[in-house]
Amino acid sequence: MPAPIPLTLPGVEEYADACTTPDSEDLLDLARLTTAEVDRPHMMVGPVEARFLQFLLTALRPARILEIGTYTGYSALSMAQVLPADAHITTCELNEDFAAIAAKHFAASPHADKITLEVGPALDTIARLSGKFDFILLDADQPHFDHYLEPLTALLSDNGILAADNTLWSGSVLDESDHRPGADGIRRFNRAVAAHPGLVSVLLTVRDGLMLIRRK
Questions:
Q1: CATH code, domain with 114
Q2: Which portions of this protein are annotated as coiled-coil regions (predicted)?
C-alpha cells in the first residue's frame, strides 16, 4: 500500500490520537518496534482505529474472529485484549518475516491462547476454514480485495460484521485515472459491496477508510 496521505485537516489526526485512550505498554512497544525496524510501518493500523475496533468488539462480543493481514500482530493483539478467554482470533499472514515478528509477540502476550496464526496465502486458508465468524477484518492484498468479498461474507455469522480497511486508499479511489493495482482493487471492492443486493455497508473516514459490511 502507498504511504498514507492525510485525509483530514492538518493536526486533526494528531488531535484525535491525543484524545483517544492510549495503548497498553506492550502494544506501544510493538508499535515502536514496527515503526523503527520493520518494512512498511504505515501498514499497521493506527491507535485510533485500533481503539475503534476494540469498542466494536466490546459491543459485538464475538466468539470467533478472522483477520486477513497480521503484519506484526498489533491489530490482533489489540483485539485480543478486549476478548473473553473463550473467544478466539484466527489471523492470516503471507509474509514469513512479518509472521515471525507477530508470533514472537503473541507468545509473549497473556492473550496468546486466544490467537492462532496461519502463515500462507489467505485465500487458501479461507478455503479450508469451517464454521462461521462473528467479526472479520480484511487488511491485506488490496490489489485483489474484490476476490475476498464472497468468500468472507460466506463465513459471516448471522449478525457478523466484515470490516475492510484502507477502503479510501489515501484518496486514490477518487481518481479514476489512477490504475495502480491497489487503487483499482479497492475501487472494484467498494463498487461490488455497493452493488451487492444482499449486503449493507457504511464507509467510515477513519484513518485510510474503514468499511463495515453485514448481510441484510
A1: 3.40.50.150
A2: none
